[in-house]
Amino acid sequence: MNPSFSYLLTALAALAAVLALIWAAQRVARLAGLTSARPASGRRLAVEEAVALDPRRRIHLIRCDERQVLVLTGGAQDVVLGWLPVQGEGR
């Protein structure tokens, strides 16, 4: 057997072994509950809506906990337009 072919075969076997170990570790972590296949439902931050103002700029309504903020993106820099009052706050 050619020595260079032997080295190539050894390298491919090592790569296959490492990939198999990574796959097995991921499976064990998922079965143990250390990772989740889906995102957590109790997220604190979410994009509620987004509207295109023109081809470059968009305005986003973002929820953080129980508050909402308007953010303008796509220009030279992003701008926080302001926090909306909490519903039932009575301002």
Structure description:
It is a single chain. The protein is α+β, with helices and mostly antiparallel strands. It has two domains: 1-38; 45-84. Helices cover 32% and strands 31% of the residues. It is built from one helix and four strands, in the order αββββ. The chain has one helix at 3-31, and strands at residues 45-52, 58-64, 67-73, 79-84. It has a four-stranded antiparallel β-sheet, with no helix packed on it. The longest helix has 29 residues, at 3-31. The protein starts with a helix and ends in a 7-residue tail after the last strand. The model has no long low-confidence stretch (mean pLDDT 87).
Keywords:
91 residues; 4 strands; 1 helix; elongated; alpha+beta; 2 domains
Distance between the termini: 83 Å
Query: What structural class do you assign from the helix and strand content?
Result: alpha+beta
Overall helicity: 25-40%
**Mind summarizing the main beta sheet?**
4 strands, antiparallel
Biggest sheet strand order reads 1-2-3-4
Beta-strand residue fraction: 25-35%
Nearest-integer average pLDDT: 87
Brief overview, please?
The protein is α+β, with helices and mostly antiparallel strands and 91 residues long. It has one helix at 3-31; strands at residues 45-52, 58-64, 67-73, 79-84.
